[in-house]
Amino acid sequence: MTLDEARERLRDAVGASGMTYQQIGLKMGYSPASARQAVSSLLSPQSNPSLSTLLRLCEVLGVELYEVLRPKKPNRAKKSR
Q: Whole-prediction pTM value?
């Protein structure tokens, strides 16, 4: 699992939630003036959010943190006999 994969999973969860960045940020506890930008920043490649921030984001989005951070399942080629 890379951070890019985790960000992609979070972006997918944002899309599935049907909420805007503003709504998510407000539910996470950010002020109305900074909510949208805070969530946008969390999902940017330059971001290095704390574990507690990731947990809050996951709670708001209704996903488990382990789902976001889980390693990719390896592609196992089927062996022919």
A: 0.82
Answer for the pair 11, 42: CB distance below 8 angstroms, yes or no: no
**32-55: b (≥16 Cβ within 10 Å) or e:** eeebbebbeebbeeeeebeeeebe
76 vs 2 pLDDT, higher one: 2
Those residues with Cβ within 8 angstroms of residue 76's Cβ, 6 or more apart along the chain or in another chain: none
Q: How confident is the model at residue 77 (pLDDT cuts 50, 70, 90)?
A: low
Domains within the chain, CATH numbers bracketed:
3-69 (1.10.260.40)
